[in-house]
Amino acid sequence: MSAVAKLLTQKEELLARLEADPGPNETAEIQALLAKIETALKLLGSQDSTADTRRANFA
Asked: Is 59 strand, coil or helix?
């Protein structure tokens, strides 16, 4: 499983936990984890774009 797939799976699991109406502390923890996942996904996405650009320049 790729890193992106793992992050998306974690994101889905955390969103499901949020739907279960957790307490305020758990909600804050889940939101913090979701923010980290979003950042990681953005970074991985920008790396993919950079790699695609480099490949295009060498083609």
From this structure: coil
